[in-house]
Design a protein that fits this description.
Layout (H helix, E strand, L loop, with lengths): L1 E8 L7 E6 L2 E6 L12 H24 L8 E6 L8 H14 L16 E2 L6 H18 L7 H15 L2 E5 L1 H6 L3 H7 L7 E8 L9 E5 L1 E5 L20 H15 L5 E11 L11 E3 L5 E3 L7 H11 L7 E6 L3 H7 L4 E5 L11 H13 L3 E3 L17 E2 L7 H10 L6 E5 L5 E2 L9 E2 L4 H10 L2
Parallel strand pairs: 1-3, 1-4, 4-5, 8-10, 8-13, 9-10, 12-16, 13-17, 14-15
Antiparallel strand pairs: 2-3, 6-7, 7-10, 11-12, 14-17, 18-19
Helix pairs in contact: 1-2, 1-10, 2-3, 3-7, 4-7, 6-8, 7-12, 8-11, 10-12
The structure holds zinc ion (ZN).
Zinc ion (ZN) binds next to loops.
C-alpha cells in the first residue's frame, strides 16, 4: 500500500502546515512560490521545509504502527497538487531531503531485524541533492561503525570500494610511507595502538574543471579516542568515542557525492587515520615530538591528539598550493559547549584582528550552512590566544589554558598553515544521543551537505 504526500501552496503569511486528508494521504502546505536567492532571509526556508520532512516522517511512523496490518504502508510518494500553480523543485527536494535523512537506519549489527524504514519513491529533481544525501548517509554509517569493525586499515579498504563506485582517485599511504614522510604527529598518536595508521588521499577533478589548484579538505580520522595515557574518565565519556572520525567521515561523504554526481570541481581530501590508546609504546605527557614540517611539539595532554594528526595533514596540503583548505574535526569539548548540537564553530586566518570582517570563502560557507541546515558560528581568532601555546622546551605545546579551548586548538593548527584556511570544529553536531530533527541517534553526517553545497557554488 502506498502513502501520498500532496504539496499545496501556502501564502507567505502562513506557516508551513500539514494534516491527514484521508487514510493514506497527507496534505502539506509549503511556500511553493519561494525562489532561492530572492533575499538572504529565505535561506532558512530550505531548512524549515527539510525539518517538516523529518517531522512528517516521525508522524507517518506512528500512524503506520497504529494501522491494521492490511492498511499498513511501505511506500511513500510526494507529488504536487494539480491545484498548485508553482512546481517548486527546491521546496520539493528539501522536503525529500528531510524525509530521506529521517528515514535512515543503522541496523547492520542486528540479527533478524526487520527495518521500519519507508520506501520513498519520488526522486530528487537535482541529482546533486540525492548524491549529497547518499554521501551524508555514508558518513553516518562510518561514524556509527564501531572500532571492532572499522579501524584505520579497514577504513582504507572501505575507501577503495567507495572510490570505485563513485569515481574519485584514492592513494593510501601505509605506515612505512608515513614513516618515510616523517609524520611525527600521526605516528606519535598511534604509538599506543596495535593497529597501523593510514594516510588517505582522495582526489576528484571533473573533466570540466579549469582549476589549477584544488580546494583541499582535511578530516580528523581518530578511529577511536581513549585519550591515550591522559585517559578519559570511564563513566560515559568514552562511550561515543568511535565518533572521533566524524571529520574524516564528512570529507569522505562529500567527495563521494561530488564524484558520484560528476560535479564540476577540483577537490583533494586528506585523511590521517589513527587510534589513540594507552599502551606500552604510547606517547606520554611531557614528550617532545617532531612533526612532519620539522617543528617540535611538547605534548602536555595525550587527549589533545586530533590537532597533532591534523597538523601533519595541514602541512602535507602545502604541496597542492591550495586555493583554500577546510579542515573538519570533532576537536574540542569547548566547541561542543559553544553550539551544542545546533551548529558548528568556525575560525579562519583572514584579517583575524578585525573580527567583523570575514573572507569571501567564509561568507559563502556561512550561506551554504544556512541553506543545508548546518549553521556556522565564526569565532574570534585573535593572536592573543596563540600566546597560550608557548612551550618552555619546544617550539609550541599542544595545549592552551582552560578557557576558549576550541580557539587555542585552532591556533595550534594555524601554526602549520601558510594558505587561506578555514577550521570547522564539529564536535557538537557530529554525534547525537537522541533523535533530533531529521537526524537519528548516532552519527549525523554533518559537514557533507555543507561541503557539497559550498564546493558546487565555488567551482
Ligand atoms: Zn582526544
Amino acid at each position: 500500500m502506498k502513502f501520498k504526500i500532496i504539496l499545496y501552496e501556502c501564502d507567505k503569511s502562513q506557516k508551513i502546515n500539514w494534516y491527514l486528508s484521508s487514510e493514506h494521504t497527507l496534505a502539506c502546505r509549503v511556500p511553493l512560490s519561494f525562489m532561492l536567492g530572492q533575499d538572504t532571509t529565505h535561506e532558512t526556508i530550505c531548512d524549515l521545509v527539510r525539518r517538516e520532512g523529518g517531522a512528517i516522517y516521525k508522524y507517518l511512523q506512528v500512524l503506520n504502527k497504529g494501522y491494521y496490518l492490511t492498511n499498513k504502508f511501505k511506500y511513500v510518494g510526494v507529488e504536487y497538487s494539480n491545484k498548485s500553480k508553482h512546481k517548486n523543485k527546491i521546496i520539493l527536494d528539501n522536503l525529500l531531503e528531510g524525509l530521506f535523512l529521517a528515514n535512515y537506519e543503522f541496523n547492520r549489527h542486528k540479527t533478524n531485524f526487520k527495518g521500519t524504514a519507508f520506501n520513498i519513491s519520488t526522486t530528487f529533481n537535482n541529482p546533486i541533492n540525492s548524491a549529497s544525501i547518499i554521501g551524508a548517509c555514508i558518513a553516518r554509517d562510518l561514524v556509527n561503525e564501531p572500532l571492532s569493525h572499522l579501524n584505520a586499515v579497514k577504513l582504507s579498504v572501505v575507501l577503495k570500494k567507495l572510490a570505485k563506485k563513485s569515481g574519485f582517485h584514492l592513494e593510501v599511504l601505509n605506515e612505512k610511507k608515513i614513516k618515510d614522510l616523517k609524520m611525527g604527529g600521526v605516528l606519535s598518536v598511534n604509538k599506543g595502538s596495535i593497529a597501523k595508521p593510514t594516510f588517505n588521499i582522495l582526489t576528484y577533478k571533473s573533466k570540466k574543471s579549469k582549476r589549477k589548484n584544488p580546494i583541499v579538505l582535511v578530516g580528523k580520522g581518530v578511529m577511536y579516542d581513549t585519550g591515550g595515557l591522559s585517559l578519559k574518565p570511564t563513566p560515559n565519556s568514552m562511550d561515543m568515542m568511535k565518533c572521533d572520525m566524524g571529520g574524516a567521515a564528512a570529507v569522505i561523504g562529500a567527495i563521494y557525492a561530488l564524484a558520484l554526481s560528476k560535479s564540476n570541481c577540483y577537490v583533494v581530501g586528506l585523511i590521517p587515520a589513527v587510534e589513540n590508546r594507552p599502551g606500552g609504546e604510547a606517547y606520554v605527557p611531557g614528550d617532545v615530538i617532531t612533526m612532519m614540517d620539522g617543528s617540535t611539539v611538547e605534548v602536555l595532554n595525550t587527549d589533545a591528539e586530533g590537532r597533532l594528526i591534523l597538523a601533519d595533514a595541514l602541512h602535507y596540503a602545502k604541496r597542492y598550493k591550495p586555493e583554500l583548505v577546510i579542515d573538519l574535526a570533532t576537536l574540542t569539548g569547548a566547541a561542543a559547549r559553544t553550539t551544542g548540537k545546533c551548529g558548528l564553530v568556525a575560525m579562519e586566518n583572514y584579517r583575524k584582528e578585525i573580527f567583523t570582517d570575514f573572507s569571501d570563502h567564509m561568507q559563502e560557507l556561512i550561506k551554504s550552512g544556512n541553506i543545508v541546515g548546518e549553521r556556522i558560528v565564526v569565532q574570534p581568532f585573535w593572536d592573543d590566544y596563540k600566546d597560550e601555546l608557548k612551550s618552555s622546551i619546544a617550539d609550541i605545546k599542544n595545549l592552551g589554558g582552560p578557557e576558549a579551548g576550541h580557539i587555542t586548538a585552532g591556533k595550534f593548527l594555524e601554526y602549520f598553515v601558510d594558505y587561506p584556511w578555514i577550521h570547522l570544529d564539529i564536535a557538537g553536531a557530529a554525534f547525537l544521543q537522541q533523535d533530533y530533527l531529521y537526524h537519528k541517534t548516532g552519527g549525523t553526517g554533518v559537514g557533507v551537505r555543507l561541503l557539497v553545497n559550498f564546493l558546487i557554488n565555488n567551482n
